[in-house]
Design brief:
This is Basic amino acid ABC transporter substrate-binding protein. The chain has eleven helices and 13 strands. The protein has 323 residues and is of the alpha/beta class. Strand 3 and strand 4 form a beta hairpin.
């Protein structure tokens, strides 16, 4: 199912956390089959933002189709969630940014709701052109799996029962407890390393979940003692249900602030460069900061100086590091 949605939609729509992946594409830019023809003013505005230089960087297949497909799990607001009134429509920071980037590149944008374990294999296999939502930037990924375009900075937090009855301040305080983590995630490696170093006599247990919805439900039911995710996502859960949940920011000593990245196959370096170029335009014209301010997470915004493809290793787009 495809439909057009406007940008910067926080006040217009409320977020929902879907229980399952919908695996449906939703066009963000351009017209649907039932849309009215663009007015001359709209056409002029589109011409004003379009960049031929960036469009020419796009892979030939995207130039011919006129569409870039994006994948994410629609369960981590404010970055991306599902419209509470239309679960086939994604809303949040990522869809709002893409809605502004698409006309710069002269394309439409489609979204697919994808469970986390399928995301990196999916972009490598061409199921979607890019991932925009849950991918943390790591040196290993930059050098071997995908090219990564930073779009925000993220700290991480533990979601806990309201009142924090166990007085948890950091992961090392959870020896003998169970932490919910995303399947195959950086969070898993972080918890394992801390457990090995600090909890040898009483290890931290981990329970892997496909996404936030099931993990939050497990915490609510008491099946796990905490859920490990980005601070912005945890704060959204607490805001929606403050009588049930609270959150604690994980100290930098346990998990430093990371960049969230737009992930692109190394077979499409031009797409990485085009997306980075469009994002640079939004940062420079103030549109990017306005979106982050609207969602109340300005501290997570990046600067133009931080907008470097593969920022941790400097690996050139399309290149794989020698083993």
């Amino acid at each position: 199912m495809s439909s057009s949605i406007p940008s910067r939609s926080l006040r217009a729509r409320r977020l929902a956390l879907p229980g399952i992946a919908l695996l449906s594409a939703v066009a963000l830019a351009g017209c649907s089959g039932t849309s009215d023809a663009a007015t001359p003013t709209e056409t002029a505005a589109a011409d004003d933002v379009f960049s031929q230089e960036l469009h020419d960087l796009l892979p030939e297949s995207i130039q011919e189709s006129g569409v870039i497909s994006f994948g994410a799990l629609w369960e981590t607001p404010p970055v991306i969630g599902a419209d509470i009134n239309d679960p086939d429509t994604p809303v949040g920071i990522a869809p709002d940014l893409v809605a502004l980037m698409a006309p710069i590149l002269g394309v439409d944008a489609e979204w697919m709701n994808m469970q986390w374990p399928a995301q990196l294999p999916g972009v490598q296999a061409g199921t979607v052109d890019a991932l925009f939502g849950q991918v943390s930037i790591t040196a290993e990924r930059e050098q071997s799996i995908v090219d990564l375009v930073p779009f925000q900075k993220s700290s991480h937090s533990l979601l806990l029962p309201a009142g924090n009855p166990e007085d948890i301040e950091k992961i090392a305080d959870m020896c003998g407890m169970t932490i919910a983590v995303p399947v195959g995630s950086n969070q898993s490696a972080t918890v394992q390393a801390i457990s090995d170093a600090e909890c040898a006599a009483d290890p931290i247990q981990m329970a892997e979940y496909q996404g936030a919805t099931s993990a939050v439900q497990a915490l609510r039911a008491g099946t796990v003692d905490a859920w490990f995710d980005t601070t912005s996502a945890q704060e959204a859960v607490v805001a929606a249900d403050p009588d049930v949940f609270t959150s604690v920011v994980i100290p930098e000593s346990e998990m430093p602030t990371q960049f969230g990245g737009i992930a692109v196959s190394k077979d499409a370096p031009g797409l990485s460069e085009a997306l980075a170029g469009a994002l640079k335009i939004l940062i420079e014209d103030g549109s990017y900061d306005a979106i982050y301010e609207e969602y109340g997470v300005s501290s997570q915004a990046i600067t133009v100086d931080e907008l470097i493809i593969n920022p941790m290793t400097g690996t050139a787009p399309g290149e794989v590091a020698a083993s």
